[in-house]
DDE-1 domain-containing protein
Amino acid sequence: MSSTGWSNTEILGYIPNREPGEHLLLILDGHLSHVAVDLVEWAKSKDIVILILPAHTSHVLQPLEDTCYGPLEKIYNNFCQKFIHTNSSCITSYDICGLACKAYTKALVPDNLIAGFTKTGIYPLDKLACPSSLLVPSSAFTPEAHATNVPEKNDEDSTLDGPIATENNENTELSSESPFDFLINKLNQIKTVKCESKKVRKPRRWVGKVVSGRAITEPENLKNLKSYIQESSSSVCKVNKYTNGKKSSSKKLKSKSKTKSKASSSTHNISSPQPGSSRINISDLSTGMSSCDKMEDSEKCCVCNQFTPKEIRDSNFLEFTQWVQCDTCAHWVHLKYCTSVRVVRLGDKFNCIHCKQPTEE
């Protein structure tokens, strides 16, 4: 686990025991933390070959996608359901780690790990394990691709009794074309309009063109990666230089005006409620009065003289306060916290500690 909790280049340090001169194949996706130059050079010095999966293929070629992560999700959900039924309580942040560790040790077993590499055809090598149809990108509708699926025209199956009316030059004319041909012509017109109005854009620069589907520890690929990072850093420096030179004065003026407005608003609006951390009202602290002090006595609990019990205020979970009214004095009391009574049903009588008779105690 890294210090920030996110994946970076510092967490890859575990190396299994190997014989001298034996290479290790490490298959990763194209995350930026996996293509750092320092990491690649470190892996090359340790005889580790880093192979980056082709872009948009991790759902098919990643070994742990189906055989490990899928069972892990199902096993974790089953453990959560059993925990809820057994303890009759919700799952808190303190329970997640224990449940996840149990599911992890049960799902990521050697058989599932081996099956992941076998299913993707990585080891043993099988080039036909993943059919190419799974990696075909989506394409727009074309009449040629669906020409074989067009039903034959029959008079009995026709849904329209006459031709279609179209508008040309503000005059309504009747067209003899079929509904299918009409829609195909409209689609082609939309395509041509989009192609004509499409602006010429510069080719997109992204790291996937350099590392996708390649072993980045190879000298040539490592050289291309270094040149890409160098070009990217130089372009970023140019942009920062332009923005700092052109807009620094306006930013300073804006920051000064913001600080002045904040100072004036803080001096004039001290009495108005201000947001604070941990559900604390800053204006209440400044005046020395709590929110409960401003309430009437009838709105507070007649036992603890508070609107919310201390146990709920100090709790990290969302819990609703339950109240019960005294039948004698009509004051309200916190159930479960300020009285030993936990449930009051219809028809039950309740008396607070001030109205209880000696025999009731």
